[in-house]
Input
Amino acid sequence: AGEMFYARHNPNLKPAGEPFNTGAYVVGLRKGDTELLKKVNVAIDRLNNDGTTEKIFRKWDLWNDEQLSLRTNQPAKYDVAKSTFNWSEGLIKLSKAALVTVLIAFGAMIIAVVFGIPLALGQSNGGKAIRVLCTIYIEFFRGTPVLVQLLFLYFGLPVIGITLPGWLTAVVGLGLNYAAYESQVYRTAFEAVPSRQWQVAYSLGMRPVQAFRRIIFPQAFRIALPPMTNDFVSLFKDTSTAFAIAVWELATAYRELANATQSYLGIGLVVCCYYLAMSLPLAHYAHKLEQRLQRKSTGILSSGSDK
Output
């Protein structure tokens, strides 16, 4: 009935043929509450027998002859207490979902870096029009919830003929959102490099691009590395918003598996371990890289002072 209601307003939908299966909506009741079960069944029977159900369906143009054959008074029995979690199968599903989370996070971070650096340079050194455009972009993505942005991309773009799969929408949406935050990290890092570094580079005969690539960027990268790492770890957690656009990532897998088995605590602890397994190595590697760059910088300064 639901499919019929939505299909009649959408010219892109049409019946695929004769029905091959049936579905049903059920009323969940507390186990052992036979008195309430009887009252619910009596109410349903009354609606069916006096024609109220048929009137409601006909009002919304959902009634057909097959609805008569779907009438039943057999309660569906499902004992939550007897539902068990198959850990081997569940871990496979969680691992696949974790892989999706990792891919989304890495893809989004690449977009954030690629867009963040030009945004930072444009906001700091661009012309008036470029500075205004960069500021509008940054404030828009920082001032609106990332969940709203994902919903806008997933459901809004098809209106103008652009349709993206859920996973790609998550990558692009999170990437554009984090680009706004990364741009502020990079802008602060660039401004922290003393301006005389440019003058020294020019005195050595370097062009602006060479000076930026060889002198300014390495120093700014060392300054930006800690907040970049924090943002990347946060990005892993923000991938959980992709559940709203039907992406099977780690948080979505947790919610669905836990709802099916009521094992919220056990599965939740495992999911936390997955998130830690993704974020802790990243933080450790970034810390090691920061120390390495610091030693390299100290060595260069020491060599320069010896001369």
Residues 118 and 183 are 8 Å apart (CA to CA).
